[in-house]
Structure formats: structure tokens, C-alpha cells
Task: structure prediction
Amino acid sequence: MPAEPRILCVVVIDSFGMGALPDAASYGDAGAHTAAHQAAAVGGARWPLLTRWGLGNAAALRGDCIEGVSPAARPEASFGLMAGRSPGKDTVTGHWELAGVVLDEPLKIFPPGPPAFPPGLLAAFRTEFGTDILGDCAASGTEIIQRLGDEHCRRGHPIVYTSADSVVQIAAHEAVAPVERLYAMCAFMRERCDALRVGRVIARPFEGGGGDYRRTARRRDFAMAVPGVTVMDPLRRAGVRTVAVGKIGDIFNHEGFDTIHPDKGNAACLDRLEALLRTRFESPAFVFVNLVDTDMVYGHRRDPRGYHGAVAEIDARLAAFAALLRGDDRMIITADHGCDPCHPGTDHTREYVPILVYGPGHVPANFGIRATLADLAQSLAAVFGAEAMTAGTSFRL
Result:
């Protein structure tokens, strides 16, 4: 009986950083370590599968310790660390580099303000939509809707803000501005942000009232077109089916994928991944998954206990997924940047990310500390027999 087509799954635990990069101080991130600090905050991490797979071994490559995650005597997965080579610490930058596109210049970061945005950009927005704006500053998304939500509901003006990332965010109450109008605002802003090299424009719908506002699940990211060739392109030419889960489709501007599942939140994305593993594919497949809650719900809100719990839930689900892998299938765990919940501020942190590779036919190895996240893309191209990428050095999948 012929072997079933192989599946390679890359699961990005969003912002699951593994210690400050050598240039972290220039970003204000000296001493950051997302994994270690959340583990210490709960008296020791409880991530049994990641421990068996070698997360502690990866940390030990830099002489770091993660409380509760000891190096395994015989790791069940290959392990290593990867350093971001592109300047910045943005979601888009990290994912693009994982897919093989290394930036030479950073994406645009706006000043904290107010004002944060160029006057011409906001003038065009006001003219197009016949409305003024609130905000025009850098802020925590959860904080600014509490601070300006009442005024927004009273006057109807959208809340436009930025952060330490390359981003314009537009927030609006769903009862004040229907999400389709909010999406239209973001699409308009996206067109005008391309020349500025802004990574993302993000729609942030929310609900609630009386100073108690909550984001809804209908967030949408409008990303800049990727300035290069991602690994998905040669994979597709090699006959590999490419599948995006979660916000991956938005990050890559909906390009490079045969199928996009825009599921919201970790639980839905993990359910989708399980369904894909159970139903299989008729051809070799690459499944790219982002688990956003660690970053969006816990990292930016500086909640180490919630962050630890989210990783524990991922750990438990991955154990079940491992049993669904067959033959040459691989489960690859990594991240895009850090977001240390114990570090000052509310923004991403510039950190190493883990690389763990598990599969029933895979012989574990020490991958060491890799010079770029693009090593993952090069490895994917190599294992599927696709054209080589221009950046990165492959490791054995």
C-alpha cells in the first residue's frame, strides 16, 4: 500500500520568545525572556510535551533555564533557537522571515505622539469618510478603547492609534460603525500606507458600554504586500498544497496559499489543525498555523499567568496531534518574536524563538542557534524538493 502524502505543520506560538537577542537593548528589550519569565511567575511551567520535545534543551543553548522545563536527557524532537535577522520585532517581519523573506530596512514605526501620523494621511482619511478621528497616538489597544470608548460612542469618530510595531490600528464600536465600514476604512488606509512601508493596518472592532469595552473576534489585518518570494511559491510549483490557518492569510496578504482558514483564537485554530490532520490530503501539504492568543490576549496585557495557561493548553492539544502524525509527517513549533509579560511596557520584545521538530520518522538532533528565521523556509524547500530560497541554511526535517 503506498504511503500517504506527508504533511508538514508549522505552528507559530505567537510571541513565545526565548531570550533577548544581542541587539535587544537598542529596542529597549534588554533582559527580556518571554518563556522563562512567565514560567517563573507561576512557580514553574507545566508544559510536559514541550519539555519532552526539548524546549529546556533549546534554552540551555544560551545557558538559560526555564523553571519547570528541565533539559531532557533524550529529547523526543530536534531542538534549537533562531535569531531574527530582519530589523524590528513585528508580527509581519517575523512571519515573513520564517517564510524566507529577510528585510534589509525596517518597516515604518510611527512616533508615539500625539500626533503620531503624518497630517496628509489623516486629512485624506477625513475627506474620504467625512469624519474626524480620536487618538492619533501610540497606545495599548485595550487601554485606549476604555479611555476613548465613551467619546467614540457619543461622537462617532473612529479611534486611530499605533504601537511600537509597524502598524495603524482603527478601532470602532460595532454598534457605531458596522464592521464592513470599519474594514473599508482600513482598506483605504492600507492603500495609502504602502508608500510609507507600514506593515499592517488592523481593524479593531469592539463592543460594550459605560467604560467597559471589549474587543470582538472580528479583527482583520490588512498587510503590506510581501516584498519578496516566500517559500509558499516554490512549494506550490513543486506540487505541495499550502494551507493557512488563523491570521496567517492576513499576514501574507492572502497570497501564496491554496486554502485559507481565517479561524479566530487558539481554540478554533487548534480545532482546525486537528481536523486537517484527521482528514489528510491527496498531495503533500504544508500547513502554516498562527496561535495568536498568547500575544494578543496575554502578552500585550502583561498577564504571565494567562500566558502560561495558554501555552499549557497548546501543549495538551499538541500531545493529541502527535498521535495523528504518520510516516514522514512533521510538527514544527516556533514563534515570530517575543512579548515578555513581565517586561516593562505593552509591546513586543526582540528575542530568539524556539525551533522544535517532531515526527514519527524523525531522528532528533541539536540544531544549535540559527542565524536567521529563514533557515526554516530553506529547510521546507529542501525537504519537499522545491527550488532553494535565497536566504537561510537548511536543517534536517
Summary: The first strand starts at residue 7 and ends at 13. Residues 202 and 221 are 5 Å apart (CA to CA). The chain has two domains: 7-105+226-383, 119-223. The longest helix spans residues 304-322.
